[in-house]
Amino acid sequence: METTTLSSKGQLVIPKGVREHAQVSAGARFEVRYLEGEIRLRVVPDKGATTLDHVAGCLAKPNRQRLSDTKTRVIISQRIKASNAP
What is the pTM of this model? Predict the structure, then answer.
């Protein structure tokens, strides 16, 4: 069992052997819980960036014709420009 020390800023260093065994590296995100007298860390999987292709149609209304990806991008661009106009 390896040990580590909590810094004055509330930071912990996860020992190298533990990081390697868990296959985590800099930038990894963790879920932190206090449960039954223990502080537990769980790696949060990286879901990657969400793109328009991932969410296209998720708010579709029944009997509504789906717009092409190109038309959707044009409309989004126009609305962004309009909302940022002085």
Answer: 0.51
